[in-house]
């Protein structure tokens, strides 16, 4: 494969813009009074984000603050816990990476490099809240009344009163928890909560701020992994607690803390033998006790328990059961703010249904099975309405729904009824009920992401401008539904496509649970279009096991990682070739990362008759070595399903490798550890199989360094084409 100067320029731009993401508005939030939308944005080729504000009335945008405005008081490097938290959130941004709006008024809390700053967005003044010598912080927030800031530092939860004026000295923060350690810590989530449950918080305040539930995590029984820096053998290896299938998880509990400090900590008591996973904590309603959503080790049951604030005892309310696993929703269950009901989702009838449970225990179905419920966005209690996201695997739309009994489901759609497939990727809401503001980011095949500000009826008010670059070539992605199972597929043809020609095929694969490769998102296919322009047809297929297709489709991979996803990829590929006869199925390559890396290696190991070459990035090789919550959900505990672990183990098929395989893996990966690829490399070598291996020193599961990204994607393309043409 010959790489031209234009190709080199594209690869450099693709890497430096992070696939043309940088420069776009992100993490938008609506001010409490609805008069402004705040968001973060960076230059097109810089990861350094600053804070901006859009005036909803005028549409004017102004820069509020950047990291350079605060640098004189920066505390230093992030704590190891905060670096790990950002890795779990797949965050590689720098500068101002997050902000928190005060419940009322103009104040904004700005975490930066472990330090905390306060910004008054009316005056533009900023000030540090902690001395430069204070230990790094994480997960900082305002208390519900805005009178204090809480944060986690040195393994404990801290409380810091907010100064009444910017000229007033800050009080000293005080601990709310009794002194944590590396092994037993307070206020922060454990690894699997962040990586697999979507829970990034470890403390929850009551709406009146008088009491908090705080997670206490004991990791003393969890295996400890070490990651050394191969480029700096003199440096001490980093230590991580990592729970593997069938082995000990962290012991997670809750304690009741009162900021007044006039009462001792109170332990929350529940049957942790039956429900060891703390998935969610519900503390939204002043008129209802807090509740916890807990999950069994096999994840077939999840239960809601009420917490007695006087005793710490818990009372069972109801449970969800699934013969395979209960999915966790990042926003549900949740109380209505007035305590008149509890919103929760169930898949008992085959696809997600949104329900409202009243205080008497009666369930009302708000969004029925089959109506395409995807997520809860916001609730307006007085109007008895809620905003939800409805859709399917390719499209989604916002709608108001009623929280009152209805004879039939009749959503009020928000915004324009676009005929082209569009998908909404993020939503933020805020402001008073009568003037609620909605911020949505929408993607489609016809253009790059657009972030719009809407009124409560979905009428567009403003578009948040971006500074992002776009590629120099057109993107020609077609979405198809093929085969008996109606697989969704994407086909990306090369520029100058000749209907009379025959083209090698490159499959871009993920194939695992909770992620889609086929999307109504033009930006998603930028690299694949460049690959196609080198002289190939690039395709993507979503097999069974992927989300947003209903319970049966998703649960089809239970215990069958090594068969169902690959069978579907092969059958769908053949069905796709019947629709696109220019695909040469005698020249098929495949590439992917993470689960997609597993799938790529599996493809050349199990189906060398179909796949002629593979690039496998950060693959899970042996599922005994991945984390508990993910692996046991889909494969069960190892002692209960040894056949599932054997079938899904790449080492089972290592002796059969007969096709070119490139393994790529970061040496600092603390999600899929490097020893996965090393195990496979060792097995292949011992069986006399030829393969190629590219280690990435200092790289985690995501590639943060732009130059490394550029070289990796060039290597991927070269490897595939060198074995297909």
Core attributes:
12 helices; alpha+beta; 725 residues; 5-stranded mixed β-sheet; 8-stranded mixed β-sheet
Give the structure's gist in a few sentences.
With 725 residues, the protein is an alpha+beta fold. The longest helix has 17 residues, at 706-722.
Report, as a whole number of angstroms, the end-to-end distance: 9 Å
* Biggest sheet layout: 8 strands, mixed
Shape: globular
With strands numbered from the N-terminus, the spatial order across the biggest sheet is: 37-38-40-39-41-42-43-44
Structural class: alpha+beta
Q: Spans of 5+ residues with little confidence (pLDDT < 50)?
A: none
Number of helices: 12
Helix content range of the residues, please?
Answer: 10-25%
The fraction of residues in strands falls at 25-35%
* Mean of residue pLDDT values: 94
Overall radius of gyration: 26 Å
- Work out the number of β strands: 44
